[in-house]
């Protein structure tokens, strides 16, 4: 395994590790019911809860595995607009590509652009052979992103108390 990058760059985006400066956007990404419709059971109530999600999610993953979801900044403004990245899922012993953006940035190709860079990162930096995306079957936008990455529909699995389609690809 080579060096695991802590930043990635695409045409419009800068992907970097999350820090404690990202509490507000972490809250925003976990409190809009439309954004979390196919992900989290309930919206966060305050920044203290956002801190817990940040610490138990990306920050814990960086420490344990050396990588985790990236914060995605729009280069044009320097603002964080969502997250994208590879998360190791011990439940299925596989790395997953995942993504989530603030609503106003949907439908501009950003989801696909960032995810493509993360697939390359998984292959080049992490030596991942099999990559999955776990998606609730109703989440058409997410399924489209997975398809555009070249992933194929695999089995339906039960995980985190929901039934999800496992999209998968060999790298
Ligand atoms: C899923 C998500 C990341 C997609 O990001 P995005 O930047 O809007 O996606 P893109 O613009 O790259 O679009 C990818 C494809 O999906 C299509 N698409 C986007 N939104 C769609 C929608 N609501 N319904 C149907 N297709 C949709 C696009 O048209 C595009 O396909 P095309 O190139 O064939 O036209 C974004 O909608 C999101 O953050 N959703 C909430 C969080 C979430 O559900 N994350 C995934 C959990 S598994």
Tally of strands: 8
The side-by-side strand order for the widest beta sheet comes to 1-2-3-4-5
Small molecules held by this entry = coenzyme A
Instruction: State the share of residues found in helices, binned by percent.
Output: 25-40%
| CATH H-level superfamily title | Gcn5-related N-acetyltransferase (GNAT)
> What is the total number of structural domains?
1
The first-to-last residue Cα distance is 15 Å
The CATH topology corresponds to Aminopeptidase
Q: What best-fitting shape do the alpha-carbon axes yield?
A: globular
Quote the beta fraction. Answer: 25-35%
Task: Count the DSSP helices.
Answer: 4
Using the 3D structure, state the CATH architecture: 3-Layer(aba) Sandwich
User: Strand pairing plus helix content: what structural class?
Assistant: alpha+beta
CATH class: Alpha Beta
Q: What's the mean pLDDT score?
A: 96
| Main beta-sheet annotation | 5 strands, antiparallel
Order of helices and strands: EEHHEEEHEHEE
Give the C-alpha Rg: 15 Å
Uncertain regions spanning at least 5 consecutive residues: none
